[in-house]
Design goal:
There is one protein chain. This protein is mainly α and 320 residues long. It is built from 15 helices and no strands. 53% of the residues are buried. About 2% of the residues have low confidence.
Length: 320
């Protein structure tokens, strides 16, 4: 979802295949808005550590969406920064976790990842006059529609794994285990993975993108935990990262990417992280009524709203 690294174009121009692979790895890192190659490598390693199907579908989705961008001649610098791969990555993971690793899911992942490239172009064009970016909206739209429609088709629907958010063990007090587990799963749940060690690997990967990035990721996780606890969310769902992953993305996006490094902007970013926690609960309730999934919609809507307000709020300044 973002920018940086001046050597990207040079790497991309050397050879097509290495350039394509580098862009794809960066696409994995761009899920967390980071084009750093090592960030992408470690995040991808974390996804494979979560299970071979998660890793395979993340890789497949990223490769397909990046290849689709090549086929339709998207600007090469845009591809080289990984900006065409991140929605395909998330789509692959979302489909395998929602529909299972059946042959039909592989076909859907390929189709969905390619569709993300087209939808990203459309949303980029529509949002440009407002100074906003598409973020993960293409992934949410494509995956959401496919998952909702899947039960209607016998060759696609084979029953689905139960979402973590649909299983609660009753209300209880937060324990120390819940707190440290939530801190890391808030980060792994960005990729729909409920494994604390995956969150740890991803956090190390974010450290390669810079101190500001990893600090805001950590701060977003803490704010997400506190806001969910303050609102009275079930301890089991807090522990599993259900209420915190959108806060992590908002904190990174606003604190480390889209706004300059000032105290006012930092506070604004963390307020956004807290706000998206409440929005997560509201959108989850809405989506449940028709079998949909919240995915990263709270992050998208919160970031759009807060960034759209910046031009009218002189205290806050965009980066760049």
């Amino acid at each position: 979802m973002l920018i940086s690294e001046p050597d990207v174009l040079l790497e991309f121009q050397r050879k097509k295949l290495p350039g394509f692979l580098l862009a794809s790895v960066r696409g994995v890192g761009q899920v967390d808005l980071q084009p750093c190659l090592w960030t992408g490598v470690l995040i991808l390693a974390g996804l494979w550590a979560a299970g071979w199907e998660i890793g395979l579908f993340a890789t497949l989705g990223t490769l397909v969406s990046t290849a689709a961008a090549h086929l339709v001649a998207v600007d090469r610098s845009n591809i080289a920064l990984g900006l065409q791969g991140y929605c395909g990555c998330l789509t692959g993971v979302a489909l395998v976790t929602s529909l299972g690793g059946h042959p039909a899911t592989y076909a859907l992942a390929v189709i969905g990842a390619a569709m993300c490239t087209m939808l990203l172009a459309a949303l980029t064009t529509l949002l440009a006059p407002y100074g906003l970016t598409a973020l993960t909206a293409p992934f949410c739209l494509v995956s959401g529609i496919m998952v909702i429609g899947a039960p209607s088709f016998g060759r696609i629907w084979h029953g689905a794994p139960r979402a973590v958010s649909s299983t609660t063990t009753g209300d209880r007090a937060l324990s120390w285990h819940d707190l440290w587990h939530a801190f890391f799963t808030n980060i792994s749940q960005v990729f729909l993975v409920d494994e604390w060690y995956v969150g740890l690997i991803i956090l190390v990967g974010l450290a390669f993108a810079g101190a500001r990035v990893v600090l805001y990721a950590a701060a977003g996780s803490v704010v997400g935990i506190f806001a969910a606890w303050a609102l009275g969310a079930p301890a089991s769902l807090i522990s599993n990262g259900i209420y915190g992953y959108n806060a992590v993305l908002v904190a990174i996006a606003m604190g480390a990417v889209f706004l300059t490094a000032t105290l006012w902007n930092g506070v604004y970013a963390l307020i956004g992280a807290a706000a998206t926690t409440g929005l997560t609960a509201a959108l989850t309730s809405i989506f449940k009524t028709f079998g949909g999934h919240t995915f990263t919609w709270p992050f998208i809507l919160t970031t759009w709203a807060f960034m759209a307000a910046v031009p009218a709020l002189p205290r806050f300044r965009r980066s760049g």
